[in-house]
Amino acid sequence: xxxxxxKAQELAAFLRTRRERLDPGEFGLPARRQARRTPxxxxxxxxxxxGVSIDYVVRLEQARGLRPSVEVVxxxxxxxxxxxxxxxxxxxxxxxxxxxxxxxATTAAPSLVRLLEDLSPLPAMLMNHRxxxxxxxxxxxxxxxxxxxxxxxxxNSMWLCLMHPRVREFYLDRERVVREGIAHLRAAWAAHPxxxxxTDLITEFTSGDxxxxxxxxxxxxxxxxxxxxxxxxxxxxxxxxxxxxxxPLEDPxxxxxxxxxADEESQSALxxxxxx
Length: 276
Prior knowledge:
By secondary structure, the chain is α+β, with helices and mostly antiparallel strands. It has two domains: 3-93, 434 Repressor (Amino-terminal Domain), CATH 1.10.260; 110-275, Beta-Lactamase. Helix content is 46%, strand content 12%. Helix 2 packs across helix 4, helix 4 packs antiparallel against helix 5 and helix 5 (84-93) runs parallel beside helix 9. One of its GO terms (molecular function) is DNA binding. Pfam families: HTH_31, MLTR_LBD.
């Protein structure tokens, strides 16, 4: 299957899943129209909300080679009540956003490596859009894993979460962490259609991990710039860490992720870990 055909299939599946997740009652539809055998809105209802023909929606959901215009994509995003992340994903699938022209970052910018050290004692690392870990400071390695001991191909935070025998057991709310990571990767996959390494990585995860395959099929899309993770660290005990993700203007393909303890107990536990 060509990449164009693959994106058409994904566009079709994404439109169907978003339509089926909508609650007809929230659209003020007449009661007589709410006795339905399938979940969500009907195609004709989406067509009416978006101001397009029913046949057009049918052809899109059947991946019949259409490339919707910017205006149609905008109308569909509104009709389906997409989140900002989902809307951007739809624009990428429809190839109506400028493609990323720069090659994916595979090495860390020297100035950002120095910044990682300056951020100590805050655990911090540098990643690219596919979650490859390009650089890190000592505190980050102490908190998570000694990245230097891993082959470069395995210095990937999603791989660590899914496959690393120690790291995969860290997170108390494991499914949420994996789900959020997948939602980011799906957005990255659409925004970087020529990144064969990312496509191969997703194929590896889908075929090798049932949890990843199940959550990937749900087609959630979200770029997470901040949040928190609760870890049961084998040495420090319970750690609740907040994180913030920054994109440098000079190197937008590199993401700086900075962690902070979210409460006094976690800060004390982190201090003990880093002092050890």
